[in-house]
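All the exercises in this workshop are built on plain-text protein records. Sequence and backbone structure share a record, each on its own labelled line. The structure tokens are whole numbers drawn from a learned vocabulary of backbone shapes. The record below serves as our worked example for the rest of this section.
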Amino acid sequence: MKRFAFAIALLALGAAPAFADITLGVGLTVPGEAQIKVTKYDCDGHDPIVVQYLDAAPNFLALVPIDGQTVIFANTLSASGAKYEAGKYVWWSKGSQASLSDVTEGLDAAPVLSCAEENNTP
């Protein structure tokens, strides 16, 4: 078995300021073969982002930086590509392309980010 640790910062609650700077260490133990893939994306009108993928069947996660925070996305069913969801966000990758959408903006809204894997070959 492999063990991966992720740190998740709690946001301060208006009624409970004592929680403002607490960080929890969350241990995740995954059986069998697990793989972490790190992918850098160039995004239209945005600085490049680095996404970490944890593939440990049946658990597939994507850690995506959004507004200075790392958001943990869980893989969900899709017709094609890999679709990950977290709260109001959907991270969808297919081949070398990826996009971040905000579902609260409506189904016809343009993605928040449209990205392509960075090409590391000269």
Remarks:
- Confidence is low (pLDDT under 50) at residues 1-24.
